[in-house]
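Q: Given only this backbone (403 positions), what sequence would you predict?
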C-alpha cells in the first residue's frame, strides 16, 4: 500500500525523492559558487557554505541562509548577506539568545516574568524533552549559542526533507480540496442537502453552484453553500494557516511548528514523551529528563506567527479541540526559511527540578480529547485515506502511562 501514495500523501512514501522542482528556487549551485568565490572564499569554503544551505537566487548576489532568510533581494547581515559580509559566517557564535537554568517552578516563573517585562511583544513558549541543534557544516554564528549550538525548530515536513535531500526546495502541498471537503462536509447530512436542492430547483430557484447555494432562501442550503465557498476560495489563502494548524495538531506532516501561549501546555510537552505502542498513541510522563528538558521562550511575530482561528466559519460544525485546548500559535516556514521559528528565539530555560506527574493522565485527556469529544478528530478519522497517520490517544485509561 506504501506505493500508492499520491498528492499530499506522497510525503509519506518511501519512493518520494524529495527533489521536485519548486516554483521558485535556485537553478543550480554554479551561480552561488561564483558569488562566494568572487567574495574571496576558497573552493572548500564555498562548497561548505553551499552544502550548509547558503544559496543565491538567480540574478542576485545576496547570499541567503535558507534556514532563516526568505527569498528576498535585500540583505540584513544576519540571514541574508552581501558578498562583502560573507566572511562573517566563519566567525565565532554570537547569538543573542540566552540560556538559563530553573531549579524550581518559582525560578521558572521569575525568568518568564523578567523576559516579559523586557519585551514589547508577547512571549510564546515551546516545551521539549531536550534541545536539538541544526546539523550542518557551517552554522550561522548569528543563531549559534556558545556551548549549545544552533537551535533546530524545524517542522515535521522540513525535518524529513532536509534529512533525505539537503537541496530540497519542494513546494508543500496540503490535502486536496476534495479531501478537505470530505472532512468538513461530513458534518452535514448530504442526502438532506441534495433533497433540499432538488426541491428548491423544482420551486424555481437556480442552484447550480456554491454561490447559488449560498444565496438560497433555505437556511441549511445557504449555510452549506457558504462553507463550500470558504473552502473553495480560501484553502490556499486565508484558510491556509488554519488548515496547516489542523494537520500539525492531529499528527500529520506540515510546514508549521506549534507554539503555545500557555506555560502549562509547554511544561506538559517538556515532561512527556510521545510513544506509539501496539498501534496506540501515548504520552508517557518522564519528568524533566534529568535536567535536559527545555522551555523555549520565543518572541511573537504578527507576520510569521498565527494564533488558532477558532472563529473561522468553516470550523463551526466541527470544532477542533486540540489547538483550542493547547492554546495553539503556529509559526510558518518555507523552503527559504526552514528554521524560521528559531529566528525569534529569545532564550532557553533548562528545567532542573522535579515535576509532579500524578495528574499526567488527566492532562493528556484534556489536551488530547478522544473522538467522542473532538468532532473534528472523528471526521478526520472517517474521511481520509490514510487515517493511521493521525494521532489518536484513545480511551482515557490508555492515553498515558507513568514511568
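A: Predicted residues:
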Amino acid at each position: 500500500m506504501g506505493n500508492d501514495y499520491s498528492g499530499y500523501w506522497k510525503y509519506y512514501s518511501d519512493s518520494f525523492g524529495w527533489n521536485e522542482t519548486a516554483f521558485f528556487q535556485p537553478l543550480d549551485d554554479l551561480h552561488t559558487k561564483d558569488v562566494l568565490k568572487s567574495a574571496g572564499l576558497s573552493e572548500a569554503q564555498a562548497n561548505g557554505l553551499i552544502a550548509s544551505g547558503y544559496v543565491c537566487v538567480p540574478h542576485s548576489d545576496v547570499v541567503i541562509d535558507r534556514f532563516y532568510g526568505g527569498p528576498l533581494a535585500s540583505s540584513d547581515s544576519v540571514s541574508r548577506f552581501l558578498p562583502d559580509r560573507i566572511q562573517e559566517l566563519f566567525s565565532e557564535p554570537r547569538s543573542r539568545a540566552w540560556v538559563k537554568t530553573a531549579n524550581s517552578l518559582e525560578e521558572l516563573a521569575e525568568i518568564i516574568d523578567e523576559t516579559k517585562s523586557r519585551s514589547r511583544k508577547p512571549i510564546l513558549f515551546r516545551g521539549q524533552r531536550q534541545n536539538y541543534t541544526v546539523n550542518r557544516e557551517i552554522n550561522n554564528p548569528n543563531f549559534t549559542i556558545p556551548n549549545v549550538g544552533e537551535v533546530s525548530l524545524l517542522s515535521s515536513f522540513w525535518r524529513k526533507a532536509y534529512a533525505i535531500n539537503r537541496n530540497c526546495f519542494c513546494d508543500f502541498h496540503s490535502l486536496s480540496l476534495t479531501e478537505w471537503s470530505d472532512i468538513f462536509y461530513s458534518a452535514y447530512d448530504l442526502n438532506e442537502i441534495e433533497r433540499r436542492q432538488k426541491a428548491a430547483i423544482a420551486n424555481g430557484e437556480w442552484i447550480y453552484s456554491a454561490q447559488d447555494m449560498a444565496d438560497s432562501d433555505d437556511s441549511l442550503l445557504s449555510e452549506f453553500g457558504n462553507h463550500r465557498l470558504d473552502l473553495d476560495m480560501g484553502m490556499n489563502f486565508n484558510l491556509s494557516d488554519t488548515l496547516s494548524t489542523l494537520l500539525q495538531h492531529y499528527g500529520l506532516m506540515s510546514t508549521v511548528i506549534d507554539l503555545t501561549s500557555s506555560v502549562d501546555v509547554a511544561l506538559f510537552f517538556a515532561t512527556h514523551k510521545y510513544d506509539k505502542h501496539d498501534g496506540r498513541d501515548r504520552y508517557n510522563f518522564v519528568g524533566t529528563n534529568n535536567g535536559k528538558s527545555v522551555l523555549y521562550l520565543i518572541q511573537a511575530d504578527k507576520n510569521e506567527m498565527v494564533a488558532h482561528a477558532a472563529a473561522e466559519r468553516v470550523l463551526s460544525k466541527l470544532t477542533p479541540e486540540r489547538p483550542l485546548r493547547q492554546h495553539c500559535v503556529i509559526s510558518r516556514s518555507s523552503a527559504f526559511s526552514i528554521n524560521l521559528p528559531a529566528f525569534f528565539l529569545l532564550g532557553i530555560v533548562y528545567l532542573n527540578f522535579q515535576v509532579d506527574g500524578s495528574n499526567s493522565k488527566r492532562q493528556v485527556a484534556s489536551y488530547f480529547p478522544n473522538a467522542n469529544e473532538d468532532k473534528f478528530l472523528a471526521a478526520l478519522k472517517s474521511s481520509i485515506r490514510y487515517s493511521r497517520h493521525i494521532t489518536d490517544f484513545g480511551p482515557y485509561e490508555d492515553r498515558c502511562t507513568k514511568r
